[in-house]
Amino acid sequence: MSENLTRAFKLAALLALAAFPFYGTDFYTEVVAKILILAIFAMSLDLLVGFTGLVSFGHAAYFGLAAYMAVLLSPPDFTPASLWTLMPLAMLAAGLAAFVIGLFVLRTKGIYFIMVTLAFAQMAYFIFHDTKLGGGSDGIYLDVRPTAAIGGYTPFDLYDTVHLYFFVLVLMVLVYLFLSRLLRSPFGRVLVGIRSNEHRMQSLGYATFWYKLAAFTIAGTLAGLAGFLYAVLFGFVTPEYLSWHKSGQVLLMVILGGMGNLAGAIAGAFVFVGLQETFTDLTKHWQLLMGGVIVLVVLFMPGGLAALPGRILNRLRKEGRNG
Amino acid sequence: MAEPVLEATGLTRHFGGLAANLDVHLSLETGVLHALLGPNGAGKSTCINMLSGDLPPTRGTIRYRGRDITRLTAHQRSRVGIGRSYQRTNIFAQFTALENCRLAAQSRNQRPWRIFTDALRFTDTLERARAALVEAGLGARENVIAGTLSHGEQRQLEIAMVLATDAQVLLLDEPLAGMGSDESAQMVDLLKRLKQSRAILLVEHDMDAVFAVADRITVMVNGVVLESGPPEQIRASREVQEAYLGENAEEEGAHV
Fold first, then answer.
1. Which domain covers residue B143, as residue numbers?
2. Residues of B with CB under 8 A from a CB of A
3. ∠ at Cα A263 (A261, A267), nearest 5°?
4. Do A185 and B119 touch (CB under 8 A)?
5. Same domain, B70 and B94
6. Which of A58-62, A315-319, B55-59, B239-243 has the highest mean pLDDT?
7. Which of B93, B107, B122 faces A204 most closely, judged by CB atoms?
8. How many Cα neighbours within 13 Å face the side chain of B216?
9. Which end of chain B is more exposed for a tag (fewer CB within 10 A), N or C?
10. Helix B123-135 to helix B97-106 angle, to the nearest 10 degrees?
11. ipTM
């Protein structure tokens, strides 16, 4: 698809998202805010899976850890924490965890990498599930949302659904722009080279381990941003945020959207939650239907949603020529 | 004689009980194309893998301009100035020929912190990549996806990538493998040009090509160096003839 058309399409989508809260109800505004948060989560994973070739099956660990940090680092006495310290701290915690875990897991490759990332995530899950640290298996409440006040000035109020929505939307766009930039930089080019042929990158003089560790840390930090926002939006955190279901779901969003495409990851988050909402209305066996959709996408839509517009355009062109 | 750029002494590699390389001595000098010959299983690949850092030696020392580099990893050796090409084409098939070389050139000045600058804005890297493509004879093919280049062009690209890293020592593993006669002749010309300013180790099966370009030849058999010297000496060597031709003669004898 031509670059201009793609850009126009993205801009239209962004405008629609910006207009949404003025037409939708608070309920749906929250649903879309949730999707936007998951889109950040999916883009962070796509940096690893789609661009660096690292299939992490434990990405929820960093999401969940930051969500817990949002609660545990808030003052216990119902006074709101400052957004401008709490959010960076939660992200820092997730990034630090990713850095330390990355030091170990990045020594493995392929199927072993998948298993070890899963194993570390499960360890993190059981730390919160089996200890009283974060309320055990019941989870823990975030009593008050953080405040955006800087000195005496409060630019927006996270208790206002529309304000919260726009805060999330702006962050999602920033993450998208940040990752797009990153991927065009010398650093990003190396990541894509590693996905294509890591051995050759080494023989060309790249210490690929450190590049992968940096990517793993950035991805963990951004997953942390998503986890923090998720905790703020829903006001409570449970160990399920770190579970392998969550890791699997975000992986499915990336696959649905088309690996190695940031806009695809966003689309994947929308389609995944959309299908989830539709199917849960239909039947309690919604996961069966979801599984079917995943199988169909993988079989008949290589490249996922991201590849769809190009395929449709090609088809139209062909028919135009034949007809 | 010139000072060796790369020098291996007593290079030995055991795989279990098998000595794939035993006490190999090899030295490379700028302006000299040194060919490594030997029948299949002689240990040529093991030797080149140890020199490039893909395989750690069991014993022995490798020096680059006098500095011990035996313990350096593959990427560290590339940074020092040793570049290698692979027997089986080892390129980034989905990228353009230019991006293949650009990545190679970028490795000399990686700038990992410049995460907000488009990699294509660093013109020093781009120029180096283009120069390498031109030197390898691919100047007109920079925007072609590497995987769609012809086999011979892919072999040229393989070498262009090594050139883009500004390597002073080229370890070339069978660059002529699978090439037609025209392509081979071109590659031989390229090798002649390249050796003027670099030290080259050439592992090759094609005898005619080897004798056409090599200044020194080392013949390996069963992991040990059988003979090393100028081409005339190798051509005249009885032991080499026995190792190469004798084997065939015996086989032919067995068939009779």
1. 88-167
2. 52, 54, 73-75, 78-79, 83-84, 86, 90-95, 99, 102-104, 106-108, 110-120, 122, 125, 161, 165
3. 110
4. yes
5. no
6. A58-62
7. B107
8. 18
9. C
10. 120
11. 0.86
